[in-house]
Amino acid sequence: MKFLECAPLDRLNDFLDNLNLGERTIKGCLEAYSCKHSGADKKLSVSLSNEILDYLGKSSSDNDSPSPVESLSARTSRKTLVYLVLALYHMYPDYDFRYLSIL
């Protein structure tokens, strides 16, 4: 994944930086990343996908009742989760999100 500069997001970030709503204040930012894997992202993506598939195999054999994890059986859902975890890695490089995908 690669961080993408996006001028319209800069304007939105200025707005979201300190949005006062009376008793509440919102502090936030928006960032854009490409979804094309490069370098270490490819290895991490494959690793995360395999961990999810392993977890799905174990959870389905342990429990026959429906669970929210079943939505990850769809390839598109797993891919979206991997993209989100990779984005977190890029946004917060000091944290380890390796086990986030199997929670």
Folded structure, characterized:
This protein is mainly alpha-helical. It has helices at 7-16, 40-62, 75-91, and strands at residues 3-4, 19-21, 24-26, 32-33. It has two domains: 1-34, no CATH class; 38-102, no CATH class. The strands form two sheets. Strands 1-4 form a two-stranded antiparallel ribbon. Strands 2-3 form a two-stranded antiparallel ribbon. Strand 2 (19-21) and strand 3 (24-26) form a beta hairpin. Helix 2 packs across helix 3. It is globular and about 50 Å long. It starts with a strand and ends in a 12-residue tail after the last helix. The model has no long low-confidence stretch (mean pLDDT 75).
What are the main properties of this structure?
103 residues, mainly alpha, two-stranded antiparallel ribbon, globular
List the helices and strands and how they pair.
Blueprint: E1 3-4, H1 7-16, E2 19-21, E3 24-26, E4 32-33, H2 40-62, H3 75-91
Antiparallel strand pairs: 1-4, 2-3
GO molecular function: RNA polymerase III core binding
InterPro entries: Maf1, Maf1_sf
Pfam families: Maf1
In short:
The protein is mainly alpha-helical and 103 residues long.
Order of helices and strands: EHEEEHH
Question: In percent, how much strand structure appears in the residues?
Answer: 5-15%
On the 0-100 scale, what is the average pLDDT?
A: 75
Number of helices: 3
